[in-house]
Write a structure and sequence with these properties.
Layout (H helix, E strand, L loop, with lengths): L1 H10 L6 H32 L10 H27 L20 H34 L1
């Protein structure tokens, strides 16, 4: 929720005033990055809690796929689709092949905040899975 609040706030950075936009963007960017750090720490610690003792190194590749590979593929694809749909063209893209032809649309922050809020739907599922594991452990005794 903290990360989503920061992302939603970044959407409202006023484009008319450069100084105000930087200030608003900086404040809400700080809120967003704090939320991201919270999420990363919580996900990492939860994963470590459920990693079997002898398989710590074996599952790091799985963690990398879900925490790095998938977001690095899905995030830019979603962002590019939003930027193309909004179509705010960059005046002079120049000769640099790496320069985008679109200015990033503010709507990417709204969509990213919505995706971040999807985590709130996943948290109860993790809680139910934890309770099921504890209940199953109690039956084996």
């Amino acid at each position: 929720a903290v990360m989503a609040a920061g992302l939603f706030g970044m959407y409202f950075a006023p484009p008319a005033s450069r100084g105000a936009a930087i200030a608003v963007f900086g404040i809400f960017g700080f809120v967003m990055i704090c939320g991201y750090i919270f999420v990363s720490a919580l996900c990492g610690s939860t994963m470590r809690d459920y990693t079997p003792e002898g398989a710590v190194g074996k599952l790091q590749g799985v963690r990398m796929v879900f925490s790095v590979l998938i977001p690095m593929l899905a995030g830019p694809a979603i962002g590019n689709a939003i930027n193309k749909a909004r179509g705010i063209r960059l005046e002079d893209a120049g000769a640099d092949i790496m320069t985008t032809e679109y200015i990033p649309a503010p709507e990417i922050f709204i969509v990213a905040g919505g995706v971040a809020l999807l985590m709130l739907a996943i948290v109860p599922l993790i809680g139910m899975a934890k309770r099921k594991v504890k209940a199953d452990e109690g039956k084996d005794v």
